[in-house]
């Protein structure tokens, strides 16, 4: 994208959706991480899981904020990798444990779905250029 071109509306929407995709696991991870530490409920496995959520969310937010405007292929492929590997793994665990165990809908599947929609919009936008 040159300095005189402005991003299209689809690109702006996709960028906001992708940022929300990263912001959700980051905020959930930070909340639970510090909530468990402050209340003395420190569990090592939960500590690692929340640290992974924080790192994943922060990585997605930073890539979207700093690198997505350049429309590089590696950024989109890395975001797709994060959604499939990390998001798919979490989605499988959530559906298996929460939906089948308690019958409750796993609300944490929304970031993965929003991220996949954002990547579809981004790929559609890049193909149209």
Task: Report on the biggest sheet.
Answer: none
Q: State the total count of DSSP E strands.
A: 0
- Span from first to last CA? 10 Å
By secondary-structure content and strand pairing, the structural class works out as mainly alpha
Order of helices and strands: HHHH
Shape: elongated
Low-confidence stretches: none
Give the helix tally: 4
Residue-averaged pLDDT? 81
The percentage helix is over 70%
- How large is the radius of gyration? 16 Å
Strand content: under 5%
Could you explain how this protein is built, in words?
With 129 residues, this protein is mainly alpha-helical. It has 4 helices and no strands.
Can you give me a brief rundown of this structure?
The chain is mainly α and 129 residues long. Helices cover 80% and strands 0% of the residues. The N and C termini lie close together (10 Å).
